[in-house]
Design goal:
Number of helices of chain A: 11
Bound molecules: guanosine-5'-triphosphate, magnesium ion
Strand order of the largest sheet of chain B: 3-2-4-1-5-6-7-8
Structural class of chain A: alpha/beta
Largest sheet of chain B: 8 strands, mixed
Oligomer: heterodimer
Number of helices of chain B: 10
Helix content of chain A: 40-55%
Order of helices and strands of chain B: HHHEHEHEHEHEHEHEEH
Radius of gyration of chain A: 22 Å
Radius of gyration of chain B: 21 Å
Distance between the termini of chain A: 6 Å
Shape of chain A: elongated
Amino acid sequence: SLSDKLARTFKKLRGQGKLSENNIQEALKEVRIALLEADVNYKVVKQFVEDIRQKAMGKEVLESLTPGQQVIKIVYGELTRLMGETRQELALTGRTPFTLMLAGLQGSGKTTTAGKLALHLRKLGRHPYLVPADIYRPAAIDQLQKLGSQLGVPVYGTDRKLRPEDICVDALSKAGTVGADILIMDTAGRLHIDDALMAELVRIKEKILPTEILLVADAMTGQDAVNVAKHFNELLDLTGIILTKMEGDARGGAALSIKAVTGKPIKFIGVGEKLEALEPFFPERTASRILG
Amino acid sequence: LYGKKQIDEKLLEQIEEILFTSDLGVAATRELIETVQAGVARKELDQPEKLRKALKEQIRQFLDVVDIPHSMPGPGEPYVIMVIGVNGVGKTTTIAKLGYQAREQGKTVIFVAGDTFRAAAIEQLQVWGDRVGVEVIKQKQGSDPSAVVFDGLSSALAKRIDVVLIDTAGRLHTKSNLMEELEKINRVIKRKLPGAPHEVWLVLDATTGQNAVSQAEIFHKALGLTGIILTKLDGTAKGGIVVGICRQMKIPIKFIGIGEKMDDLRPFNAPDFVDAIFG
Ligand SMILES: Nc1nc2c(ncn2[C@@H]2O[C@H](COP(=O)(O)OP(=O)(O)OP(=O)(O)O)[C@@H](O)[C@H]2O)c(=O)[nH]1
Ligand SMILES: Nc1nc2c(ncn2[C@@H]2O[C@H](COP(=O)(O)OP(=O)(O)OP(=O)(O)O)[C@@H](O)[C@H]2O)c(=O)[nH]1
Ligand SMILES: [Mg+2]
Ligand SMILES: [Mg+2]
C-alpha cells in the first residue's frame, strides 16, 4: 500500500523533523505511481503531485506522525478537498416538474441509474416519471419500462419514430397527467466524438432546459475519462456526475480525473445492479480507495 | 514523436505520456521506457525514428500470443462459445456481431439467452437474433441460466447447429456468488458436451483502466479464458490495458469491436493496434 511504500521511503532518511526537498522527492514519486495505478489521468496526476509538493515543502512533521504519515495526510486531505468537500444532493429548486437528463458513454449504467434515481426520489416523497429517450438500442425502451413497472413508477410511452428531443418535450407536457413532479430522461449511450449524437443531446437540453444534467460514468474508466468528461461538459455544462459500478475493486481514479477536468460535483455512486444500490458520494472514502 | 531531432529527456517524457494515457499501466510503461533507455545507452537507438520503431516492435511482441489449443467439436457437434465479462462491456452486442459473421461464413448459429437476470436482456438478444437471422434459445427472466444453457445445447445437437453463442449476465469479478454461477454454467456445458465450451471469451471495454487486469485474472482463474474481445475501440480510448494482460496471462485477443452495428467487428491486428497508440 502507499503507506507502506512511504514508510520505507522515509525510513532511509533518518531524523527528519521537517519535510524537505530531498525527502519529498522520493515520496512524491511513490504518490505519483499510486495515483497512476489507480487510473487517475496522467496530466491530472502531474498537476496534483506538484500541488502536493508546494503544500508539503517546509511543513513541520507533527509530533504524532512519521514523515510518511505526514505526506499521506497532506495527500489525503488534498484529494478529499478536490473531489468535493460538501455533500451535494440534486438541486431541485424552481418550478415543477423538475427534469433530470442522464447522459454518457455506451454501457455506463444510465438506464439502470434512471431506475435507481426514480426509487431514490420516491423515497424522498417525490413523484418521478421515467422517460425512455433511447430510440436506438435494442429493447432499451423495454428495459426502462420493466424497471418502471418493477418500482410502480410511471414510464412515458415512447414512440420510437419520434426524435428524442420531441419525446422529452411530449413527456414533459404529460407529466401532470400522471401526477409527476420530476422527469428522469434516459438517453442513448454515445461517443463524445460522435458529433451528430452529441448535437442531439444539445437539442434535448435546449428544448427542455433540464434542472440537472448528469454525466453517468463507469468508475473503472481509465485515462480516457478526462476526454469524455471534458467534452460532455463543454457541450452540455453538466450539473453533476454519477459514478457507477463503484462496489467493485476498481480504485476509481476516474473520480478525481472527472472532477478535476469538469469541476462539477459527483452527486451519487452506483454500488450494485439492484435499484436500491445508489448512494451519496463521499469524497473521503474514494480518496482512501484511490490511494490504495 | 514526429519531427523530433534528437533523443533527449523531453522525448522520453513524451513517450511516457503516450504510453500512460493509452492505459498501458505503470509496469508495462516502466519496462518499455527502460528497454528504450538501454538501447539508447548502447547507442543502438540514436535517432527518434529508430526509437519509435523499437518501441512499437517491443509492444507488438508483448501482444504476440499463440492461440490457446483446445478440443474441437466432433462430427455433428456445435462449436460452443461462452461470452463473459463485467457489466455493460458489450457482450450481447458482440454476440450479435459474431453471429452475423458466422452467418456470412455460411454457418448455422443459435444464440443462448444466458442472461436471465437483467431487465430486457432476453428481449435485447431476441431483437439481435431477428436482425441477424439466428434462433434464440431462451426461458423466462429469473430462470436458472444453467437450465437455459442446457436447453440451448440440446437444441443445437438436435438441429446439428454449427455455432452456439452463449450470452451471460454482466457481473463484477469480485462477486463470488456470481462467479460461482458462471462456474456452474461451465460445468453444465462440460457434462452435456465433453470438450465444450470450446471457447471462453472475455469481453473488455477499451475505456477500462487497470481494473481490466483484475478482471482478466479472476475470470481466467475461474473459467480458463481462451480469448479476449476488446470493444468500443471506435472511441478515443486506446485499450492499452491488453498489453499487460497479453504479456502476463498469454491470452490472445481475438476481435475488436469498433461500433454498435452487427458488422462492427474486426479480427485483432497487433501492428494496427500499436500504430493507433502512437496516433
Ligand atoms: N455492478 C454494477 N452494475 C451496474 C451498476 N449500474 C449499472 N450496472 C449494470 O451495468 C450494465 C449496463 O447498464 P445500463 O443501465 O444498461 O447502461 P446504459 O448506460 O443505459 O447502456 P446504454 O444505454 O447501452 O448506453 C447493466 O448490466 C447494469 O445492471 C452498478 O452500480 N454496479
Ligand atoms: N461504440 C461502441 N459501442 C458498443 C460496442 N460494443 C457494444 N457497444 C454498446 O455498448 C452498450 C452495451 O452493450 P451490451 O451488448 O448491452 O453490453 P453487455 O456487456 O451485454 O451488458 P450487460 O449484459 O448489461 O452486462 C450498448 O449501447 C452497445 O451498443 C463497440 O464496439 N463500440
Ligand atoms: Mg441505456
Ligand atoms: Mg448483455
